[in-house]
Specification:
alpha+beta; 5 helices; 27% strand
Length: 179
């Protein structure tokens, strides 16, 4: 094989050794989260049962704080929040709610952490699960995501099916599928 362009053989080598792969991640669309919080605040301000109250949801980075007059109203705002998040395609399994606390003057608040990223312990658990299934794939922990690669597309699809069956308490997405 005679090459006139020196980069051609390198490209051929890369294509031969590149294995199909995908990444397992747990992400929350920040824009959709913002929109859902805005919708909740708009609905709460317009509802008759919240007239005269300072019920609202504040969003700072990965923390949502629900403020309301009492524990019951915190629960009502939380229900509205869950509905708006689901309508916007955000899995509410990513939410980790704290306890409802008194904040003085008979008012209540609840902090909710929006979890994203796969922590190291969960990643190790997923790797063990895949290896325990004797699948012909390799897994690698890369920061807050997991890279799964294999020689055949069917093996990767079987790995996705296995991970979908697993209840990890966190919504997982399968992205960057490369052939």
């Amino acid at each position: 094989m005679k090459c006139t362009n020196w980069s051609e053989p390198v490209a051929l080598i890369r294509e031969e050794h590149a294995m199909p792969s995908f990444d397992v991640v747990s992400e929350v669309d920040a824009h959709e989260l913002n929109n859902a919080v805005d919708q909740v605040n708009r609905e709460v301000s317009n509802r008759f049962d919240f007239k005269g109250s300072d019920a609202r949801v504040e969003h700072k980075e990965s923390l949502l704080t629900i403020f309301a007059d009492d524990e019951f109203k915190v629960g009502q705002v939380r229900d509205i929040l869950d509905i708006k998040l689901v309508k916007r395609g955000i899995d509410i399994a990513c939410l980790q709610a704290g306890e409802v606390k008194e904040r003085g003057a008979g008012k209540a608040q609840q902090e909710i952490t929006v979890r994203s990223g796969i922590d190291t312990t969960l990643a190790k658990t997923l790797v063990k699960k895949i290896k325990g299934a004797k699948m012909k794939v390799q897994t690698a922990i890369q920061g807050e995501q997991l890279r799964v690669s294999g020689k055949k597309r069917d093996d990767l699809q079987a790995a996705i099916a296995l991970l979908k069956e697993e209840d990890v308490g966190l919504p997982l997405q399968y992205v960057n599928f490369r052939d």
